[in-house]
Write a structure and sequence with these properties.
By secondary structure, this protein is of the alpha+beta class. Strands 21, 22, 26, 27, 28, 29, 30, 31, 32 and 33 form a 10-stranded antiparallel sheet that branches. Strands 4, 5, 9, 10, 11, 12 and 15 form a 7-stranded mixed sheet that branches. Strands 19-20-23-24-25 form a 5-stranded antiparallel sheet, covered by helices on one side. α15 crosses α16 and α22 packs across α23. The two termini are 13 Å apart.
């Protein structure tokens, strides 16, 4: 992936002290802190560390002459200062509220989700009355909020229909250009919006492109070619999908969301970043036409009719351009073509104006969906030609005959697609493959069922129930075939294990097909891809097609003897889409469907179950005013204080991953080593190597236990000789290897008699795809047998055995897979390295070759000639990453096994590279 790489383990003596968790290409010795022999916790002496010379740096080619400035426009704060009450805010920044404290309380009430009656009750409390707020009722509070500066304003208009409906229809919408300007000026997107197409190459020879954001793809370059010199390309992203408001009366809403493709792909992948705003609430009609099929045609026509009205300003701007302001107030000559429309498969067919038995992006029909070759693209010109042919044959007003004429040409009866007159819009390009429905939903609807038919539902459920419970991951004690109300999260959890579970239980050709399809999905979801990566995912898809006949022979398709699966045909568009549009993750409906909670479901719940659309718009208007006012007053307050506005808001210990809070153990380790917490126990319980952060509980599970007693409890008769050998060898081999002949005897003497033991450790790293993305920490258990875990609970990890190899870039080369059996620290009277380091006793697995059908490494327990497991002592710093193992069940799993015993009673395993995308990246 040609990005800066950090060392997996340079020495068990060093920890990373820089705030930057990975060493860059020019890293120096100042990035490291030594744990010296005096060792006052983490010591201060700095050692020179030889850093591996990095590979070629990426080369970026910017589109010359794009996005010129045309004078001065306005900024977010300029708009705030243009408010009618700006003069009042020169004396009171928080006007119409009397103070910042009153504004914070008012904002909390407005965003609390409380009903007006509950807010009135809160404001009637004596303790609240004593504060003498300027509002005493919920109604008065809302009136004050209405005085705040507004975002894009809502409009409403009636909708005329071709056929009668059960009730009159309205569309609530906003000016689309104003919505785009709102996104550009939003402080949340500051520094995250770019306007110049670029081509990124992995090295100076420019043989390998890198695809990430939309602007790095070929489509942005092509669109910029079609614009005048100096013009700015604003890629419009739309998304629509019906969502339920109430289950009782089956009330639905049909939100149309809008975003900018110019926003960083990292932002688009996160559901908590508000990268989408609600553009319109499309009507959900109930036609009274007697023909059910034609009611669907009428609904599709109405959808295109209404969207055409809503996006009219965007069409005009795409045709002739529009002057708009960038985030810093420069005027840009902007064009707004439609570049992405995110929707599920049925909605994509409606948008593309084709029938269900045809592809939305190509000229393929149902009997071609299983072909390994992609058909010609479905372009605007081809659709226009087909519509002209239909109009020559019949009139659009004659609904029945028009629909019949359309069906012969795989059209759905829509006479005027909204995108037909939108300059530069191409359905085959803007209808992008979508991870949620085209990957995860397809896996659940097809791959899972194929495995169930081949292995048997009961056996598949039993094998899934045998999987070991992992912290933070779902367990399936009752299997997977009877699960109801499934979500994308559950589909993803099942996909982590499916290959390893069925391997050995289904025919090899069928396993190859399942594995190849899984490889294809994992490779396609990478946030950064090169031409070589795209070639690999293309090869994976071809491998599936080469082996899909084995699935049919094994009965995976049941009574069906065809491959007419629309989502299978969509997969042929994945590689071209990545080259054209950048990484797929930025076009996921997972984010837009999550946005439905904020813009539809929560506002609907706050109302009185009447006139949902109007109440949703009023609720969102109030929320948006509060959000804008909070952002503006924060910026102005910082300006008045003289604070730098380019400070990093993520400098705190908490980071965000999507909508989840992530504890940053790297920063906590740095703060400890910098002496910010002088009373913290030594050695520090949180520490970091160059690639991995470690966190132990403040109090160990066992605070002072005799070495012999600990070895007996944990069933480690060779613990003492292993420790003695480690002490004898560590001066000569910085990266400690496992195995080899014992030199010490079981009754050897150690320089300590007691140890402290921990039963759990959390480890954390940064994404190998994006060195700025902090991953969730993973809890690892090393605990003694209990009633629920009769064999104990011992997780597995990947460790370094060669200091010259990097994880994850070197894969398993120079690394071993081991099982943690004890985490401990010696208790010694002297302040030496020995008593100020954490160690682990681990038992090694022998890594066999990769099975060509399962695509995973085979692991076997390493045994000595006596039959004992091979174990040894390593410093905790040699741990690189968590690992997940799946027992190799063979043709039939032992009925005596369960999830708590399957690991300990098995001798052969799969290294499950599908457990995480990071592990897949390292092991593929």
């Amino acid at each position: 992936m040609n990005q800066p790489r950090g060392r997996c383990i340079t020495s068990q003596l060093h920890i990373k002290s820089s705030e930057t968790p990975f060493s860059g290409a020019d890293g120096d010795a100042g990035d490291w802190i030594d744990m010296d022999s005096g060792f006052d916790g983490l010591a201060d002496e700095v050692f020179d560390v030889e850093m591996e010379t990095r590979t070629h740096e990426p080369v970026t080619e910017l589109y010359s002459g794009a996005s010129a400035n045309y004078g001065r426009g306005y900024t977010f704060m300029d708009a705030f200062d243009a408010d009618p009450f700006s003069s009042e805010r020169q004396h009171n920044l928080f006007y119409p509220f009397s103070s910042g404290a009153e504004w914070k309380f008012a904002s909390w009430l407005a965003n609390s989700g409380l009903s007006m009656a509950a807010i009135d009750e809160c404001l009637s409390l004596d303790v609240i009355k004593s504060q003498r707020f300027s509002f005493k009722t919920a109604k008065a509070l809302r009136k004050l909020i209405e005085l705040l500066p507004s975002g894009p304003r809502w409009k409403c208009r009636s909708v005329k229909t071709e056929s009668p409906t059960r009730r009159a229809l309205q569309v609530f919408y906003r000016d689309a250009i104003e919505c785009l300007q709102h996104l550009i000026h939003s402080p949340s997107n500051n520094g995250l919006i770019h306007f110049v197409p670029e081509k990124i190459y992995s090295a100076a020879d420019r043989t390998q492109r890198i695809y990430t954001d939309w602007l790095t793809g070929d489509r942005a370059w092509e669109l910029q070619d079609a614009l005048p010199d100096g013009a700015t390309l604003l890629g419009v992203v739309l998304s629509s999908d019906k969502t339920h408001i109430t289950q009782v009366r089956n009330r639905q809403a049909h939100p149309l969301l809008i975003s900018l493709a110019n926003i960083s792909a990292d932002v688009h992948r996160k559901g908590s970043t508000k990268s989408y705003v609600l553009l319109a609430l499309l009507p959900v009609p109930r036609f009274v036409h007697p023909n059910k099929r034609l009611r669907g045609v009428l609904a599709s026509r109405l959808l295109h009719q209404v969207i055409s009205v809503v996006v009219k300003p965007l069409k005009m701007a795409a045709e002739v351009g529009r002057m708009m302001s960038d985030p810093v107030g420069n005027l840009k000559y902007c064009f707004t073509p439609l570049v992405a429309y995110i929707a599920d498969t049925p909605e994509q067919h409606v948008i593309a104006c084709i029938t269900d038995n045809a592809s939305a992006v190509s000229m393929a029909v149902s009997n071609q969906f299983g072909d390994p070759l992609r058909c010609a693209a479905c372009t605007v010109s081809k659709t226009r030609q087909l519509l002209i042919a239909v109009k020559r044959e019949t009139r659009a007003r004659n609904l029945s005959s028009y629909f019949q004429a359309c069906r012969k040409r795989q059209l759905n009866g829509v006479a005027s697609p909204f995108w037909l007159d939108w300059a530069l819009a191409e359905p085959s390009s803007f209808l992008t493959p979508e991870v949620l429905h085209h990957f995860f939903k397809m896996f659940w609807d097809h791959d899972r069922k194929w495995c169930s038919r081949m292995l048997g539902a009961d056996e598949l459920d039993f094998w899934f129930s045998l999987l070991r419970t992992c912290s933070g991951y779902r367990h399936f004690p009752d299997g997977i075939t009877t699960l109801k109300q499934t979500s994308m999260q559950l589909h993803r959890e099942v996909q982590r294990y499916i290959v390893g579970v069925v391997a050995g239980g289904i025919p090899q050709g069928a396993l190859t097909a399942i594995r190849a399809l899984t490889d294809f999905r994992y490779r396609s979801q990478a946030p950064k891809l090169t031409d070589a990566d795209i070639a690999k995912l293309t090869a994976s898809l071809q491998e599936f097609h080469d082996n899909k006949a084995a699935l049919m022979e094994a009965g995976a398709r049941g009574s069906m003897d065809h491959w007419r699966i629309p989502k299978l045909e969509i997969m042929l568009s994945v590689a071209p889409s990545i080259r054209s549009m950048g990484a797929l993750g930025q076009w996921s409906a997972d984010v837009t469907e999550h946005a439905h909670i904020d813009v539809i479901k929560d506002p609907a719940r706050s109302g009185n179950n009447q006139n949902f659309d109007g109440q949703i718009c009023r609720y969102l208007d109030r929320q948006e005013k509060c959000q804008l006012f909070m952002q503006a007053t924060t910026v102005r307050y910082l300006d008045l204080r003289g604070d730098s506005d380019d400070s990093d808001p993520s400098d705190g210990e908490e980071n965000t991953l999507g909508s989840r809070q992530v504890t940053d153990y790297f920063k906590r380790a740095h703060a400890l080593s910098a002496g910010d917490f002088p009373t913290a126990p030594r050695p520090y319980r949180t520490f970091a190597s160059s690639t991995t952060a470690f966190h132990l509980a403040s109090r160990p599970k066992m605070t002072n236990i005799d070495v012999d007693r600990a070895a007996e409890l944990y069933g480690l008769p060779d613990f003492k000789p292993a420790m003695a050998d480690y002490l004898a060898r560590h001066h000569h081999n910085l990266t400690h290897t496992i195995g080899g002949r014992w030199r010490a005897t079981p009754d050897c003497q150690l320089p300590f008699d007691h140890i402290q033991i921990w039963s759990k450790i959390c480890i954390q790293s940064y994404s190998s795809y994006d060195l700025k993305m902090l991953l969730l920490s993973q809890g690892l258990h090393v605990s003694l047998p209990t009633v629920n875990w009769p064999f104990g609970r011992y997780d597995s990890v990947i460790i370094s055995r060669d200091g010259n190899k990097d994880w994850p870039h070197s894969g398993l080369h120079g690394h071993d897979v081991v099982q943690l059996r004890m985490i401990f620290k010696p208790i010694s009277g002297s302040q030496s390295l020995l008593s100020n380091m954490y160690y682990a006793y681990v038992q090694r697995f022998v890594t066999m070759s990769v099975d060509q059908h399962a695509g995973m490494h085979v692991l076997k327990r390493a045994l000595r000639s006596t039959g004992e497991r091979v174990g040894d002592i390593i410093p905790l710093f040699q741990i690189c990453a968590p690992a997940h193992l799946i027992p190799r069940f063979g043709q039939k799993a032992n009925s005596q096994l369960n999830s708590h015993s399957s690991d300990e009673l098995s001798s052969s395993f799969w290294l499950n590279k599908y457990w995480t995308k990071e592990l897949f990246h390292a092991c593929s």
